[in-house]
Design a protein that fits this description.
Structural class: alpha+beta
Mean pLDDT: 91
Low-confidence stretches: none
Distance between the termini: 27 Å
Number of helices: 13
Shape: globular
CATH architecture of the largest domain: 3-Layer(aba) Sandwich
Largest sheet: 6 strands, antiparallel
CATH topology of the largest domain: Rossmann fold
Order of helices and strands: EHEEHEHHHHEHEEHEEEEHEEHHEHH
Number of domains: 3
Length: 355
């Protein structure tokens, strides 16, 4: 049976979402035996126009508008197209999918996600506790819940330090004046708590994996970032076999029974200690790197949703180290019909059907 799978995060811009890389991974494995629907939040998201990867696209209501509008849109797509799986790839929409997982399942739409308790683990105020439980370090962290805490945090960590929202937003600050400016911006947009984190220099090491919800995983790949963009996105990287990083990811899936994709972001400091910086509860934008070295995690996620058991034992890498990843930009030249269709009707469906 041909799967009809919706994928969000198809904003392949200078700060790319993971959706295009997920679609590319699935297309590479399934070919034409899969129908991929792009879920876009803006008519100019490039994934809409990548018709060799994404068969059709639908505009979605923003998650900030509440869960009901988003769920109803999915149910409409289900009715019109027979949608049977969704792979959400954006942090802001995940709470809606998690809270409505049972409702979507009853409607015949599967997801592969952590529960809400697990999702809250990715809050930056939880990072010190998680790092300790999986036997790695974390930069000195101070939780900020009011104005006075900011001054205390600055005195404790020293300048510069990273000032972060608990879930979104992060910026390096060099002075108390800059810290106050960033503080007010993050509080206005995301609320409390904030996190002050001592700066740690070193090599950026990341690991992508998919937990199976029972303490195992569907595979994992570790990389070192060689260069990053101003937005912090990887531009070039190399696969590595770093036993401590892979063991930490394995322990995370075991201890917290994590279900679904996650990315573990770490720094290897000059003291040769591994510092946990963030845990992202979804595929990273570089997930095709894992596919390219033989570990197609999006495909394995779909296979697991099909009810086929996959459990990669232990932390022995199944890929070669020393494989290079290079991101590049490209141009698409097409006509206006898809843009006109998605702007006027909210989907490219009418154009795809030749209407």
């Amino acid at each position: 049976m041909k799967h009809i799978i919706a994928i969000s995060g198809i904003n392949a811009v200078d700060n790319p979402g993971p959706g295009v890389a997920v679609a590319r991974s699935l297309r590479e494995f399934y070919g034409d035996d899969i129908h991929i629907i792009g879920l876009a939040y803006d008519a100019m998201e490039p994934g809409i126009y990548m018709d060799w990867l994404i068969d059709e696209s639908f505009l979605m209501p923003y998650p900030s508008g509440g869960s009901e509008a988003l769920v109803q849109r999915l149910l409409t797509i289900k009715k019109e197209r027979g949608l049977d799986m969704v792979i959400p790839n954006l942090d802001a929409e995940l709470p809606i999918y998690i809270a409505n997982a049972d409702r979507l399942r009853e409607a015949g739409i599967q997801c592969y996600l952590p529960d809400m308790k697990q999702f809250r683990l990715r809050g930056k105020d939880q990072i010190p506790q998680i790092a300790k439980s999986i036997n790695i370090e974390t930069p000195e962290t101070v939780v900020i819940t009011n104005h006075s805490d900011l001054h205390l945090a600055a005195a404790k960590t020293g300048f510069p330090f990273m000032l972060k929202g608990a879930f979104y937003g992060a910026q390096k600050v060099q002075s108390i004046a800059e810290a106050l400016q960033v503080y007010h911006h993050i509080v206005a947009e995301w609320g409390f708590p904030l996190i002050a984190q001592r700066m740690v220099t070193g090599e950026h090491l990341n690991c992508v994996a998919v937990g199976n919800g029972a303490g195992g995983h569907l595979g994992m790949v570790a990389i070192k970032k060689l260069s990053i963009t101003k937005a912090g996105k990887i531009w070039t990287g190399v696969t590595i076999h770093h036993p401590q990083l892979l063991e930490a990811a394995q322990q995370f899936t075991e201890r917290y029974q994590w279900k679904g994709p996650f990315e573990m972001e770490c720094l290897l400091g000059p003291d040769n200690k591994l510092y946990l910086i963030e845990i992202n509860p979804r595929f990273p934008a570089w997930v095709y790197f894992a596919t390219g070295v033989g570990c197609n995690l999006p495909q394995r996620l779909v296979t697991s949703m099909d009810g086929c058991e996959i459990n990669m034992a232990g932390t022995v890498p199944e890929y070669q180290s020393g494989k290079l990843f290079v991101r590049y930009t490209n141009d698409i030249v097409t006509d206006m019909s898809d843009l006109q269709s998605i702007v006027t009707s909210g989907s490219t469906l009418l154009h795809k059907q030749g209407a």
